[in-house]
Amino acid sequence: MRSGYDRIGERYRDWSQHSPVRLQQLQRLLDRLTTRSTVLDLGCGPGVPATRLLATQHDVIGVDASQVQLSLARQAAPRALLVQADMTQLHLRPRSLDAVASFYALGHVPEAHHEALFGRIATWLRPGGLLLTSAPLGVGDDHDEEWLGVPMFFGGIGEQATREAVRRSGLVIESSEVIEEDEGDGALVQFLWLLARKPT
């Protein structure tokens, strides 16, 4: 997965940055945050549009496995703290974040790691903290040998299991909906979009 994103570099940035669904969902999070919140952009990719927009008002940590994508994110959001890491191995101080945003990145997490990742996210959030994420609807691990021209790994646990895993982590789901979007050339895809809150 890391080498694939390194290889497609700017091509992925140019392909992905104009998603209207991502912008709409990001605005929902921005509307809820107070100025200078501490936000983790988990799987930040090239930093556009999410990392860049978040960093204009907040203290942002962008995490991605791809060094090439992080170099693009550094250009897009020079004020953000950028870290190269595998999100399934990431450890942060408990109650250190006001929000976690993760756009399309959960689809690259192996099926076996989804629930544990939600559990760690819940520990990172302060009381009242928010999680905004998109999750894949498919179940199981898979490989696509020609995703944007490179081999790519995908994993998921499905719609119902994702909701249950978020609830078991201790977060309260405030909204949950499946949204369809056009990836280009009429290719329609669906993701589960979740907004959840850590109880105060």
Question: What does it look like?
Answer:
- The chain has a single domain (2-197), classed as Vaccinia Virus protein VP39 (Rossmann fold).
- Helix content is 32%, strand content 36%.
- The chain is built from 6 helices and 9 strands, in the order H-H-E-H-E-H-E-E-H-E-E-E-H-E-E.
- Helix 4 links the parallel strand 2 (59-64) and strand 3.
- The mean pLDDT is 96.
Low-pLDDT ranges: none
- Estimate what percentage of residues fall within beta strands: 35-45%
Oligomerization = single chain
Name of the CATH first level:
Alpha Beta
Number of self-contained structural domains: 1
Pattern of helices and strands: HHEHEHEEHEEEHEE
What's the total number of strands? 9
CATH topology: Rossmann fold
Question: Count of DSSP helices?
Answer: 6
The computed structural class is alpha/beta
CATH-level-2 architecture: 3-Layer(aba) Sandwich
Biggest β-sheet description: 7 strands, mixed
What's this, in brief?
With about 200 residues, this protein is α/β, with parallel strands linked by helices. It has six helices and nine strands. Strand 8 and strand 9 form a beta hairpin.
Fold blueprint:
Elements: H1 2-16, H2 20-32, E1 38-42, H3 50-55, E2 59-64, H4 67-76, E3 81-84, E4 97-102, H5 114-124, E5 125-136, E6 139-147, E7 150-157, H6 159-168, E8 172-182, E9 188-197
Parallel strand pairs: 1-2, 1-4, 2-3, 4-5
Antiparallel strand pairs: 5-9, 6-7, 8-9
